[in-house]
From TrEMBL:
Protein name, per record: Serine/threonine-protein phosphatase 7-like
Keyword Protease: no
Organism, as annotated: Hibiscus syriacus (Rose of Sharon)
Signal peptide (from-to): 1-31
Protein keywords: Signal
UniProt-listed SUPFAM superfamilies: Cyclophilin-like
Pfam families reported in the protein's UniProt record: Pro_isomerase
Molecular function via GO: peptidyl-prolyl cis-trans isomerase activity
InterPro entries attached to this UniProt entry: Cyclophilin-like_dom_sf, Cyclophilin-type_PPIase_dom
Domain PPIase cyclophilin-type: 165-317
Length: 343
């Protein structure tokens, strides 16, 4: 996915890098260079560059893979299953046990947090313990301890109607269902943004509609080009004054209409207006816009833009960037359909 150039020094820096790469490559055997330069990866990057940085959601992972947690983290909360009497061989099994208590349609999950001890040496007799817990506030989980000395792995689970946050703009509010089981590090960062009174610097600055290449459902039209335009809106979620740490690559499913994903390791993100199988499984998806709110994203994609070129790719940049704020839900979703799936 293309990134917006930051300043005038970009071209000078790029030229210097190219020169150094050229000199270095002269010292290497062609076979080694060919091995390092993976054609598939380069092709995907070009597609994302051209994309601008790039109803139910299928994250595209194999069964069991979308049960991720964060290592060296112990989450607290009221226990609904005591780990001393509830053991498994893997964190995935522990996660799935929590999910099994979160399948009903009649209210909040009985379990929204799992904590697993999976390091045999560090855990000792507690190896395999799986603690299932319930948070007072699932959007602000209670941390007991974190750091390299912590032997626990923890994760959170959102049930139906839970884990939905607001991306507020002057053109309307996008409700986004988060996927903590597939992108726990990403979701942790989004939850941190909810605690900020504002998100100065957070904005949408690029907008490209579906053009004649994708239909209203996001399906690619046969024989049509894959852009430009590339059917997306793009921006940044880096708040001024708040240090941003690169987010590790997490679950990378096929990009679908409504997918909210990082450009690389963030903080630039995009919301897709179409299904992009051609981008393959290259971008961490941490949420999905609820189907009924996609008309707001479509509205933004129709706003006035100006042409720009990012790394030899034609892009459309908004004439007036749109500030945004990440917020908690102001009211219950009621009967709003939140049945977007993370696997």
């Amino acid at each position: 996915m293309g990134r917006r150039p930051n300043d005038s020094e970009h071209s000078r820096f790029a030229s210097l890098v190219l020169l150094l790469v050229a000199l270095f490559s002269c010292l290497l055997v062609y076979a080694v260079v060919s091995t390092l330069l993976n054609p598939t990866v380069n092709s995907d990057d070009a597609s994302f560059e051209s994309s601008g940085s790039a109803g139910g959601i299928d994250v595209g992972e194999k069964k069991g893979e979308c049960c991720r947690g964060i290592d060296n983290l112990e989450l607290w909360g009221a226990a609904v299953k005591w780990g001393s009497d509830f053991k498994f061989n893997s964190s995935v099994e522990c996660c799935e046990a929590c999910k099994a208590m979160c399948t009903g349609n009649d209210g909040p999950c009985l379990c929204d947090t799992w904590v697993f001890c999976g390091n045999k040496e560090a855990c000792g007799s507690r190896f395999g313990e799986c603690w299932l817990k319930k948070q007072k506030d699932a959007l602000s989980p209670d941390r007991q301890e974190a750091g390299k000395s912590v032997s626990w792995t923890s994760g959170i689970v959102f049930g139906k109607g839970e884990g939905v946050v607001e991306m507020e703009t002057e053109y309307g509010t996008l409700h986004i269902k988060l996927f903590p089981d597939c992108a726990p590090h990403s979701v942790t960062y989004i939850l941190e943004l909810l605690n900020l009174r504002h998100c100065a610097g957070c904005q949408i600055y690029r907008a490209e509609n579906r053009g004649q290449s994708w239909d209203t459902q996001g399906n690619h039209i046969k024989d049509a080009p894959y852009g430009p335009p590339f059917a997306l809106i793009q921006g940044t979620l880096e708040a001024l004054g708040t240090p941003f740490k690169k987010i590790p690559i997490e679950a990378c499913p096929t990009i679908r209409r409504g997918s909210v994903a990082w450009v690389g390791s963030g903080p630039e993100f995009f919301i897709s207006l179409a299904n992009h199988e051609e981008w393959k499984n290259s971008y961490t998806v941490f949420g999905s816009v609820l189907p009924e709110d996609m008309e707001i994203a479509e509205k933004i994609a129709q706003l006035p833009t100006k042409s720009d070129i990012w790394n030899n790719i034609n892009v459309s940049v908004l004439q007036k960037p749109i500030p945004l704020v990440m917020r908690r839900m102001k009211k219950s979703l009621g009967d709003v359909d939140t049945n977007v799936k993370s696997e």
